[in-house]
Specification:
Prefoldin_subunit_alpha, Prefoldin, 146 residues, Helix Hairpins, two-stranded antiparallel ribbon, 3 helices, Prefoldin subunit 5
């Protein structure tokens, strides 16, 4: 085989392993984070709806609070009609439960759009990897039927 072709093949393989697979890992990590965020918002939405359906927001409730290292204390929440939501950069805003549901639904919609974009980017990166592998096989003289 021609040394220039071998050099090109080595460059393609290096590009796949060093660049494309690293990009794919980063995208997968971002996708997992976004999916976890959606799950948290869905769980919060469920809790708020349970509060509204059982009138806990007016009567209050008892709970256990983790104060780190799996050390729990019992707490009583007398007024559950408002909730603090993290709006980013460590800032929290107080919302009524109805307002919080609106914000949560918007955040879920935004996260789902970001997830769709990440999935497209992952598919595009996988396509680039396959395309380069096909090019490598062609350079090696091993034609592949697609």
């Amino acid at each position: 085989m021609d040394p220039q072709i071998q050099q090109k093949i080595l460059q393609f393989e290096t590009f796949i392993n060093d660049v494309l697979k690293a990009d794919l890992a980063k995208l997968a990590e971002k996708l997992n984070t976004k999916n976890a965020n959606v799950a948290e918002f869905l769980q919060l939405k469920s809790v708020i709806m349970t509060f509204q359906n059982t009138n806990v927001e007016k009567t209050g409730f008892k709970t256990k609070v983790d104060i780190r290292n799996n050390f729990f204390i019992q707490a009583h929440v007398p007024d559950a009609s408002k909730i603090l939501l993290d709006v980013g950069l460590g800032h929290y805003i107080e919302f009524t439960l109805d307002e919080a549901l609106i914000v949560i639904n918007i955040r879920i919609t935004l996260l789902e759009q970001q997830i769709a974009n990440l999935r497209k980017a992952i598919a595009r990166t996988n396509a680039h990897i396959k395309l380069i592998l096909i090019a490598i096989r062609d350079l090696q003289g091993m034609r592949v039927n697609i």
